[in-house]
Amino acid sequence: MIVENAIGPNAEQIKALHKPGQNEPIYLVNLLKYKVNADYQDGRESTLSGKDAYQIYANAVNKLLPKFGGKLLFVGDVTHLRMGFVEDLWDEVAIVMYPSRQHMMEMTMSPEWLEASAHRTAGLEGQLNIETVQSSEFSNIFV
């Protein structure tokens, strides 16, 4: 298995995002790796760490999520790899719920998200962003 962090989706992934998706809640698992120092694409000077820049983005998105029916469910620091192997661990994990893929896409096209995304790009070394839906087999086990 090859694991490759990215800042944004590739062309094939963008096409897939625009196809009709699950018309049920999706849960995005975000594995986040931060830059040591924020690096803004517009060339602005910054003394922020990558994590601090990303936090500006995260705060803006957390305020924006309810407008699109979304909700931040979990954020945690990665502390240890219990099984398997990766060359470098991610720094943080976040799980966000949206009522559907369409709701998530609408948010990421909003002017507010586009403005905040400069901080995301400045702070992230890369990430994995995994779309999931609740498993029907286990839906009665978890609350």
Short description, anyone?
This protein is of the alpha+beta class and 143 residues long. It has four helices and four strands; from the N terminus they run H-E-H-E-E-H-H-E. The protein has helices spanning 11-18, 50-64, 101-108, 111-123; strands at 26-34, 71-77, 92-98, 124-132.
List the keywords.
globular; Alpha-Beta Plaits; alpha+beta; 143 residues; single chain; 31% helix
Can you offer a commentary on this structure?
This protein has 143 residues and is α+β, with helices and mostly antiparallel strands. The protein has one domain: Alpha-Beta Plaits (2-Layer Sandwich). The protein contains 4 helices and 4 strands, in the order αβαββααβ. It has a 4-stranded antiparallel β-sheet. α2 packs antiparallel against α4.
